[in-house]
Each structure stands twice: as C-alpha cells, then as structure tokens.
Amino acid sequence: MNLKINLDSPHIKLKGLGGYRIEVLKSDLNIHSIADLFHFIPNRYVDRRKFYKINTLAASTAEVQIIGEITDIQKVRSASGERLKATFSDETGNIELVWFKGIGYVQKKLKPNETFVVYGKLNAFGNSLSIVHPEIESLSTFKRKASDGILPIYPSTEKCQKAGVSSVFLRQIIK
Fold it and tell me: In terms of residue numbers, what domain contains 162?
C-alpha cells in the first residue's frame, strides 16, 4: 500500500500516533496537521555532545550527561508510593537515578554492568545529588544516533507527558 502524506495531512497517518495522543497534540499544543508539526518551534536546544564525570558534578549544574554503569537497582516502597532507585557509577563516583513513574518499564530496561548514557536535570537533596526521571539509553544505541548532538526541546504540558508526548517522542515523529 502506497500511503501519500502531504503537509495538510492529519497526523493520524503517522506511526506511533493514535487516539489519545492525537487529542493531546490538538488540545494542548495546537498541532492539527503535518505542517503544524514542522512549524512547531522548540523552546530551546541542548548540546548532547558534552559528557561530565560524576565527581565534577555540582548542584549548580542544570542538565548533565554522563556515561557509566548501573551498579545497583532497588524498588522502594513508602507511605507516599513506590519508586525505583538505581546507583549509576563511572570511574570517578556514583550518583542516584530515581523514577516515580513507569517503574516496571524502566526496571526491565536497566541491566546491571551494562554501559549507559544518562541525561537529565541534576537535583540536590542534602549532600547528595540525583537525577529524577533521566533519559537513559545503552551506549550502543547512543552511538548509532551520534549525529543527533544538538537536540530540540519542545514545549510541553503535564497532560502531554502523561500521554507520552515528550520532546523525545516529538523528535522521533518529526524525523
């Protein structure tokens, strides 16, 4: 089947878009067509070519990217709910990665002693640093996408995030 898509085509014809995601794109981001997707301007860009060593991280560093391994994974239950904690290490130190949502999915993705690239906003809690809900991918996947060094960050809403319409998702469907 030869599917023709033009700029005025409704995005319903794109892989990965259906039902609820389409409604969220329309209601929250005012995206109604392929043309709207191409004209959707990022808030900013991030340079994903730079890597930090864990021992150089400071609470003032906003977003960081590090390479290392998962050395420990724990599911923690508390009165406020469940969270997944992972210790991420490079040759200079350790940092804690934390997830409050999508715990089952993330836990399956994390493999101890495999090399990963982690990107996210650095948080300071007391004397320790952590990254909450980081983007994480295997080093081999990251290397395959090496040409994606400077990436757009698109505006979003909480409703978009819950529907899986993140900057990562938008980059994929626009590409």
Answer: 11-42+156-174
